[in-house]
User: Fold this.
Amino acid sequence: MEERKGFKSNFGFLMAAIGSAVGLGNIWGFPYKMGKGGGFAFLLLYILLSMVCGLILMLSELSLGRRTGSNSVSAYNAVSKRFKWVGWLTPITATLILAFYSALGGYCVKYLVVNIGSLFGAEWGANGLDGATIFAELIGNQMESVIYGGVFLLITMLIVLGGVSGGIERFCSVGMPALFVMLLIVIARSCTLPGAVEGLKFMYAPNFEPLKEDFLGVLKTAGGQMFFSLSLSIGALITYGSYVDKKQNLVKNTVIIASAGAAVGLLAGMAVLPAAFALGAPEDAMKGPSLLFVTLQDVFEGMGRIGPVFGILFYGLVVLAAISSSVSLLEVPVAYFVDRNRKKGKSERRWLYALLTMVVSGILCTVTCADGLGGNGLWIPFQRFFAGAEKMPAFCESWLNLLDMISEGLLMPLCGICTCLMIGWEIKPEFVRAEVETSGDRFTVYGFYRFCVRYITPLIMLFILWGQIKDFFNI
Ligand code: TRP
Assistant:
């Protein structure tokens, strides 16, 4: 049997895991949600939820992976009778997320290309068009969107083909530090634009009004954000955990990964919002796709000749962040198949499974791109049922929303809740303690962990699940 290879160094593992966490969710969603949800007040809530939910689940997943030394499907299979089936949900969910994530990643690649074009004054640069026009043309042009989505998927596949240490670890070890440096440069420019302070105030100033008005709403937003941005509960961290050396301290690594995720979210806010406010963008222009693809593009265009340089830096870092996340999504199903072959004594055939997963995700990605955020009028399942309803549920508006609802809205929290129940009540928290302590470190916060994983974490996640269902179904 071939030897199962993992990460070469703990630094490499950290970069890969941080790369998985830091993605479109942090750079795009965090700044806006924090501003809307009460700034500093939202941040406190986010940190609190990370401690009682995020860290708990992340540590559980990493331990589950490292203890079983296997992919997510086999990990659940190996330890549980009741929750075996959850294992099967993980590669399915990952494949679904990968599909719409690639569509969005493709858009980011397009903007990177546009800014490179602008730098050289080429015809395929912005060419005097504003962000709104570029975006409308992109989503209206089905062929172009599909090609960009395909390019994004292809890059993801090529990295995963390189293997865990040769592909993922190598890419992230260079990519994540580069992302950080690019982010700092963009922050320096963004925060020195005239009027930038307003953006910082929007994001950071404590504002308890949103909490008073709709505490549960803010709690749900912060929870959902925390959950998605830490890449929890679809097997990505189980898979990465299975590649971690037994000598490494899992608790310490968990804290580092979660803190880095939150830090990049906070920094991204300093890069994105001051620029948007300097342009005088109304609040509407800051949510959803327009923030990234309309407002910011206009900011860069408005900077004159140097603009494309910052455009390249910014969209370059967004693409890096998105790719380092998508590789961890693709690795979930690939690891399952590769492990299965190795167990049978066959050769791994990583390329075959990366290709197969890419085809499945690629088909759904193609539909998402062709649908153009609902603008191109593609047929969407269930839409017909709501034809007469006052308000169409969000998931019927576009393929993006539909895939997002199934994967991020339902399957992710469901897997998370089941994982907590499994560890808290079936296989018992002792399992995680034993794994944490194999490195020779003492699990000093075990009491806290045990209490959270049994009661607090599943309850909060149940609440998040309920919130998502309400949102997607307009209840
Ligand atoms: N964390 C990623 C982001 O913030 C998205 C994501 C969610 C993800 N779940 C994941 C990435 C699982 C990899 C694996 O954009």
